[in-house]
Amino acid sequence: MNDNRWGLPDLGLGIGLRGTHYAHILSQEPEIGFFEILTENYLDTGGRPLHILDQITERYPTVMHGVSMSIGSTDPIDFEYLAKVKALAERTGALWVSDHICWTGVLGRNTHDLLPLPYTEESLAHSVERVKTIQDFLERPLVLENPSTYLEFAASDMKEWEFVARLTEEADCGLLFDVNNVYVSAFNHGYDPVTYIDAIPADRVCQYHLAGHTHKGTHIIDTHSDHVVDPVWELFGHTIRTIGLRATLLEWDADIPTFDVVHQEVLKADSWRRLEVANVA
Amino acid sequence: MLPEQPQLERLQRWMQEVVVHPGSIDQAVTSPGAEREIPSRQLGEVILPSHSLTASERVGVYQGMYLMRMEEALATDYPVIKHFLGDEDFDELIQDYVGRYPSRSYTLNRLGDHLPQFLADRPDWSRDGFLADLARLELAMTEVFDEEETPVLSGEDLESVPAETWEEACLRPIAALRLLELDHAVVPHLTAFHRQRPCPNPMKRPSWVAVYRRDYSVLRLELSAPEYALLSVLVDGTPLGEALADAVAAKDSARKQARVYRWFRNWIREGLFSTIDTGSAT
């Protein structure tokens, strides 16, 4: 087990910052390791969201998580967007900036979905070049998340975990390892999630995500709308035994409950982390 | 041996055509745009089936979520229009709208920018211009919510302006201010929505509204026609002397002059102005 190669800190347990919790956070100042902000929510506002964000970043470590970098798209890179991302990272003092291994649109359009890539040499080479360009522009390592996917392309000539490992190594970028997404995709595509976890290069992993999902019977959708299910907690235990402790964040984006419910959910990760520390000792 | 696979660029064009199609998944994969990129008969050679879903059902998972995401974003920006139309008609409106104005931005916050114009241009949706007016009000509220924070001119700031510079002085509005001149009375619909009451029937009656932000809250002020006229010319940068001369003639009654004074006092109290430019070097 190694730390990530950039020495990015283990911030402990964090929660995705959502508007419904602003008042609670500012008035109660809950004890929490860090907040992750949704990048696009703060790029074009000079109003209340940014005013509150400034207060929260004064009190808590913050990381940024975006959905529009579209690193796998065949459209040109949007440098106007990247300039805004860079400025926000400087304003908030974000410890790192993350996005997803996906594409969101082509021909100038944005579907605002995290669409899957075929895992081919062509799309790997394409994505590697774009990640390098983006990192040069941002002047910081980019951290990319493995997505939940609902289909597989016949063109893929490697497994998702091979693609993820090679992308992070060849582009020299970080990995935001979403354990729930591994579970979701493993069910949808019928593979063993442990094989996926065991193939991930530990020194690339900077952060973990946990979330709830919606099981539709025939497939699972990554809805971030519920508690984390037990099999995902088991996979999280395996992940930290294999890769090590990293900043761990709970996402809850639909049917959002009170802050305390979300907080209690992420605190469950603490027992798994303590177990890992005890095992190492 | 698999048949030759489409290149990444073509695969993405095809998938986008399918995902944004408003019909069923079968209609989507057989639409002219999708067929042009990848013939539907080859679908099974491009997307693998899973243990429980066919190839088209799997791409249909993405297609089914697209319009839901657009509707959710626009319902956030236009809750009163949704309240007025009801869920079914609102969904139909959004399907029409995003077909004409799909997102071309990294943010969904700007997705609804063209809705007032779209409604004005479409007789089947406009309700004789009522919905376009309601959309203008809701768009103004969204814009004001996100505007830059600018300093607010206080009564003390005004009092410090030398009397001899008043004639040529220009008031500069805060960034978070929009003035609307509408053909319909739409504020009652906003009120009905906030009080969770049924919407009143649309009423064609001219109305004038200032939408602005104070202490990070979006507020609105209903104006009379002359109040709107004076505030508009001030916001446009007309010097105070000229604007007031047009609004209040010397022969006007003291009562009318007092009314204009009350407007000013109210605008300053509500924080509608940011600075006063007296033209003097600072």
What would your notes on this structure say?
The complex is a heterodimer of chains A (281) and B (282). Chain A contains 9 helices and 11 strands. Chain A has 281 residues and is an alpha/beta fold. Chain A has helices spanning 22-28, 48-59, 79-92, 121-138, 160-170, 179-189, 193-198, 230-242, 259-280; strands at 13-16, 34-38, 62-65, 97-100, 142-145, 152-153, 174-178, 205-211, 214-215, 220-221, 247-251. In chain A, helix 4 runs parallel beside helix 5 and helix 8 crosses helix 9. By secondary structure, chain B is α+β, with helices and mostly antiparallel strands. Among the domains of chain B are: 1-69, no CATH class; 150-277, Alpha-Beta Complex (Outer Surface Protein A, domain 3). In chain B, 52% of the residues lie in helices and 13% in strands. Chain B has helices spanning 8-19, 25-29, 32-37, 43-46, 55-77, 79-85, 87-100, 115-121, 123-126, 130-146, 155-159, 187-194, 225-235, 240-247, 254-270; strands at 47-48, 170-173, 177-184, 204-214, 217-223, 273-277. In chain B, the strands form 2 sheets. A 3-stranded antiparallel beta sheet of chain B has the order 3-4-5, with helices on both faces. In chain B, helix 5 (55-77) crosses helix 7. Chain B starts with 7 loop residues before the first helix and ends in a 5-residue tail after the last strand. The model of chain B has no long low-confidence stretch (mean pLDDT 93). Strand 6 of chain A pairs antiparallel with strand 1 (47-48) of chain B, so a sheet runs across the interface.
